[in-house]
């Protein structure tokens, strides 16, 4: 805890959605889409996890800090309060260190009252000495978009650019939008992609809920071979940045170079929407996804996460690369896709 004068420590209590919270989120430099109440609502609608919005106010009653927490419940992986659940970012928004400490203490107190053994903060202001800090697991990849299509292609490093050029010479077509048809195409591709990686797929209604909640700030872009979707991504748009969030490709995508076409087309699509930045998301250090994003010319930036667990209880382990899941991952890759899609959401909704 900070040694600040108690009189200067803000009051923390549940905060309602409304103009005051919207104004605070709009003016804070560190706000992400995952701080917004609509993200929390989408997670609740898609996976059934309730949420709590904590606000810190000064003596005048003005908001000086904020923390959304989703109560993720899972018989397999344990319960946790997470900011933000199913997200790569989130964490404490605070105007100063005492406010960050107050919100962290309030989050831990809420966990105690709910009987939850751990709290996870993905990014945001540092919560204090009682929290474990991890800045050596994940990196983010963000870069500028070029001024036109030709410049965007030339901005890609030579070897990766050659792969993109080959994809442009193929018989691939591009679709985009957020309607039911695009949603079905995206889910079919994404479900096959994660099955092939050995992980369970999220419920389809989670993607629908995010698209509905974010409206014009989210869409799907899909690459087709003839009429068959082979690569697809659901993206979020925030403050001039496009965030390809849930994406993947079928087994055929690699030979077709459909993933290369997908992300290049998304760069062009996002610029036409007025974006100037491309957030390629997070990847674990040392993985193929980490190397792939570097091949596109993106430089990694460490992401800092925080966690606190009850005495004698470790943090949740939800990382599919954890050695303890090696056999399960190998077995999942062999499941028939229809079976994986039926039982996967029952497991994956607890991985937030």
UniProtKB/TrEMBL annotation:
<dbReference type="InterPro" id="IPR038740">
    <property type="entry name" value="BioF2-like_GNAT_dom"/>
</dbReference>
<feature type="domain" description="BioF2-like acetyltransferase">
    <location>
        <begin position="158"/>
        <end position="294"/>
    </location>
</feature>
<dbReference type="InterPro" id="IPR050644">
    <property type="entry name" value="PG_Glycine_Bridge_Synth"/>
</dbReference>
<dbReference type="InterPro" id="IPR017469">
    <property type="entry name" value="PEP-CTERM_FemAB-rel"/>
</dbReference>
<dbReference type="InterPro" id="IPR016181">
    <property type="entry name" value="Acyl_CoA_acyltransferase"/>
</dbReference>
<dbReference type="Pfam" id="PF13480">
    <property type="entry name" value="Acetyltransf_6"/>
</dbReference>
<protein>
    <submittedName>
        <fullName>FemAB family PEP-CTERM system-associated protein</fullName>
    </submittedName>
</protein>
